[in-house]
UniProtKB/TrEMBL annotation:
This is Ribosomal RNA large subunit methyltransferase H. It catalyses: pseudouridine(1915) in 23S rRNA + S-adenosyl-L-methionine = N(3)-methylpseudouridine(1915) in 23S rRNA + S-adenosyl-L-homocysteine + H(+). S-adenosyl-L-methionine binds at residues 105, 124-129. HAMAP family: 23SrRNA_methyltr_H.
């Protein structure tokens, strides 16, 4: 299985980028993991919010295949503990799923077309975090899930 993380905009903090890269490298021992970055829209400061979401949505949808299982990282999504996330991932792997795609939208969220394409919504917390931080938190939780599945000593309960 390949797990992709689709992001709108690059990470502009080199400290966060280094931590994300560290977890990405660690994940390579368990799964084919890739980060796909969609560039920020040009002249977006002059755009209406709905138009910005539509244009970002078009770019997001171009990165998703019809056979992909798509999880939208959304504040209104379901929440899992780390162990529940690990179990959820195991179930996806057991089905023979080839591509699992997680998507972090732009600053205003997703277009209706992206919501319609998503198979599931997932929230990392009821608190609000910057899109930059979500990238790190998600990548770390994905790594944690695989260490739980592998009975490795990273996660403590």
């Amino acid at each position: 299985m390949t797990i992709s993380l689709v992001l709108v905009g690059k990470t502009d903090n080199h400290h966060l980028e280094a931590l994300i890269d560290d977890y990405k490298k660690r994940l390579s021992h368990f799964v084919n993991f890739e980060i796909i970055i969609i560039p920020d829209l040009k002249k977006r400061k002059n755009m209406e919010i709905e138009l910005q979401k539509e244009k970002e949505g078009e770019l997001i949808l171009k990165k998703i295949s019809t056979s992909d299982f798509v999880v939208l990282m959304d504040e209104n999504g379901g929440e899992y503990s780390s162990t529940k996330l690990a179990g959820w991932l195991q179930k996806r792997m057991n089905t023979g799923l080839k591509n699992l795609v997680f998507v972090v939208g732009g600053p205003y969220g997703f277009s209706q077309e992206v919501y319609a394409r998503g198979n599931q919504k997932l929230s990392l917390s009821k608190m609000t975090f910057s899109h930059q931080m979500i990238r790190l938190f998600f990548t770390e939780q994905l790594y944690r899930a695989f260490t739980i599945l592998g009975n490795l000593p990273y996660h403590h309960e």
